[in-house]
Amino acid sequence: MTIPKETIWPLDPHSKAKHEILRRYLEAWFPILSTHHTRVVYIDGFSGPGRYKNGEAGSPLIALDVALNHRKTIAGEVIFWFIEEREDRLEQLRKELAARTIPSHFRVIADSGRFHEKFSAVLNSIDEGNGALAPTFAFIDPFGFSGIPLSLIERLMKVRRCEVLVTFMVDAINRFLEHPDDKVQQHIVEAFGGDEAVRIAKGEGDRVEALRGLYQAKLAKVARYVRYFEMRDHENRVQYYLFFATNNETGHLKMKEAMWRVDPDGEFRFSDATNPDQRAMFASDADATPLLVGQLNKQFLGKGTVTGGDVRAFVENQTAYLKKHMTGALKQLEQSATIHVQALKSDGKKRRANTFPDEVKLAWV
Question: Which has the closest alpha carbon to 1: 199, 145, 165, 148?
Fold first, then answer.
């Protein structure tokens, strides 16, 4: 990915897909969190100018417009913190924000500086006893790999109800692994929270895969749910990864729903490959059925009687798929007599055909 030099630049297909994922996720995140909390925070750590060359909205305007135009009223205080290092882009963003009518319970901050420095100062102040961090969603979307220290993400993830969506520029990291400049090497060390990534340069095998696996393992130490999505071009080459980390089961589910609702338009493809044995291309729901059938067979064959709830929990928490995909897969398994499904639910009521509620019992035969 070429790093743009101008104040505003054309929107590329991958950014379009990424922003659509962000928008759909925030459509769920804002009303859910604001219903239960008096304050929520959205951080855009590398905000840019707010708009692209042909008029498309950038991530700051997308986030703000989701909250402003949501069909459900967003209650409580919502803080938008947009951080941008380049003054020309920040000035453009401020012009865009000035054109919006902002309600009194929205606080919009367009801040000049570096994300890691600004946010570290806030966390340091909180550690010193100056307040607490409200539920926060941080969108960390750099062009490269500097200014995104893992230590900062770890500190954020230790706070309840905080989540991150990180653009992980693995191709750039791979190309600079053996760069002679100590500053470049230090950025890589900081991004991974140690020198393991630099040592990968001296190893054998697929370096990109090794870097991805290392970053995933690091995030998994501080987040219950870590999913990454491969952003690919039309030739099926990985462009970069989107890493999502959360400790909230609902947040994890809503992010997967956001991914499945973004349709490939021929210019890009993306996949969930969090588990190498459970790789899923996000093409269509029909494509999901045979892949999920194989995963369910592997997980439950020989395990005796399980409930629909057991299967749903596995699908939602440990795979790339959703409940609707589970229904299609179980329907196919029942029709092929691979599983036996009890006619009655645990409450004694008859289940409807082709449904698999949490209370129903089933077994692989």
Answer: 145
